[in-house]
Amino acid sequence: MDGGFRGEDGLKSLGKVMRVLECFSTRDRSLSLGEICARTGFPKATAHRLVASLRDVGLLDQDRERDRYRLGLRLFELGNTVLANMDLHREARPFVEQLTRLSGHSVHLAVFDGRAAVVIHRADPHAEGSPAAFIEAAPAHCTSVGKAILAFQPPELLARLAGPAGFARYTDRTITHPAALAAHLEETRARGWSLDEGEHQPGLRCIGAPIRDQTGRVFAAISVSAPVRELTQPRIPAAVKLVRHAAQGLSAALGWRG
Amino acid sequence: MDGGFRGEDGLKSLGKVMRVLECFSTRDRSLSLGEICARTGFPKATAHRLVASLRDVGLLDQDRERDRYRLGLRLFELGNTVLANMDLHREARPFVEQLTRLSGHSVHLAVFDGRAAVVIHRADPHAEGSPAAFIEAAPAHCTSVGKAILAFQPPELLARLAGPAGFARYTDRTITHPAALAAHLEETRARGWSLDEGEHQPGLRCIGAPIRDQTGRVFAAISVSAPVRELTQPRIPAAVKLVRHAAQGLSAALGWRG
DNA sequence: GGGTCCGTCCCGCAATGCGGAACAGCGGTC
DNA sequence: GACCGCTGTTCCGCATTGCGGGACGGACCC
Q: Which of A151, A167, B29, B186 measures 20 to 30 Å from B45, CA to CA?
């Protein structure tokens, strides 16, 4: 991503700031100044000024001078506020717990950020307490929550999300060709629920359904997932019913009357 | 906070960006351009350029043009990464669960961000699933996690955190005078655990203990809390033992040998 | 239809940020 | 302890970016 701008140009400095922040991930937990230079292409002095400023406002952290950098706690605080302010997250608990209990499968609740499905809630039938594993944004084109959302977006969005070589491949079953995905999403839209047959993770079957806001716009989705040997073909119709019911309940809780 | 810079000046634009982001909170979930102008003091054109840029990179969201702004999902994603990358968070689960079970009280785990105690994990003995309520950064001077951390920081930090009128008052019991707090923290440090007697929330008693990283530096704390009528005076010694044991276990898990 | 208020956009100007180069600090080797 | 190599930090002349007053457009109200 070239500095994160999606529309026309904004503040150039902000674009540079985003490019620095995007160097970090769950795989690249901390980075030296040299590594940040290498990944962003910024000269040493420029990169140093950027990271020093980010550290001063708390968006990056550093244990001591000359040490490696990592994402700062201020981001966690702001991210917490995003979640706390989200109506969907506030309403979700009973629906997610009920779907987990009734289906016996893992449940994911994701919001669309314009290019990926961001999981904001996850529940496992066999785990207790808060989810231990965090999921970064899931690719929209090959996950059930992503496809449940994409099926109800304007057609030009799909064109915009496809890269020059189509969509990224994750497994042998990933649909990478834009035209094939468009047709697939047309089917998803017609039946009102999505199916991921190991397109993102091998051997995993997921069923998703779209969630609407009070204006009827699809902005989120919920899904159940399990290994194929567990969520067998004969069990799909019952799971579909449960997921759609949870999605409709959440949509109604958010003010959708449809 | 004047643009968030703690040291010498950094990028001016980043300071402005932070001032915009800091206008939002769990109380101010969405804001119009005019409201952002009023809170930041920026002229309309300046504020508009800032929020448009933030929206373009996903740090702010807007349902449609001319609509109100809110914090964007990209912040949640980055905040998620902060948490996922945190050794303390990854190691914490069994210690927090055990402390919750043995003490029968609410447990909080917080990290110091340089001025506040940021709660990253919370568990209640009577609640199931992930914590529903989110806590913004807790003031360090009047919470048990905050005081457990402050007691082991350099003395000049306390001077820096105090405002011109001392520390903010939350209840009748809040210690607001810097000298009084310094003496209080000296006692905390000597005995190795902290006590919050309704200093932040009336009628709530909390006991906290510091957590060290592999170098021995105190950067986090854990606490139990309950209403005074539940966590009575005779029950304090047993609770102290449990909290300190959990803190020491977590410190050891992080590589502290002391 | 007119008025008010808010948001968006333009462009001359001022402020900020850039980055090559020099310097400082740290770790490793002899 | 001295030296070397590498990385991080700082400086300052210059170029680019961001600023903000004002004009314009849109939505809402009377």
A: B29
